[in-house]
Design brief:
The chain has three helices and five strands, in the order βααββαββ. It is an alpha+beta fold.
């Protein structure tokens, strides 16, 4: 199977706007999770734009079963 081209692979890091859109929450919600240490982020470039790793974002938004949080 051929390797996927960089243009077709999903990004590993998302902007706060993209991270918020992924779960239909506000940028402020994502920013608060970062500030509380619930979600890790990295700063990129001279402006220091924040990016969130997709795997960390998916772990932060853990599934719920029958109204109770599931254990992983």
């Amino acid at each position: 199977m051929p390797d996927p081209s960089p243009a077709t692979t999903a990004p590993v890091y998302l902007s706060l706007t993209s991270a918020a859109a992924r779960f239909d929450v506000s940028r402020k919600t994502i920013r608060r999770a970062i500030d509380r240490g619930e979600l890790s982020a990295v700063r990129l470039g001279a402006r220091g734009d924040l990016r969130v790793h997709v795997a960390d974002l998916d772990r932060w938004a853990r599934p719920v079963r029958n109204g109770a949080e599931s254990e992983r």
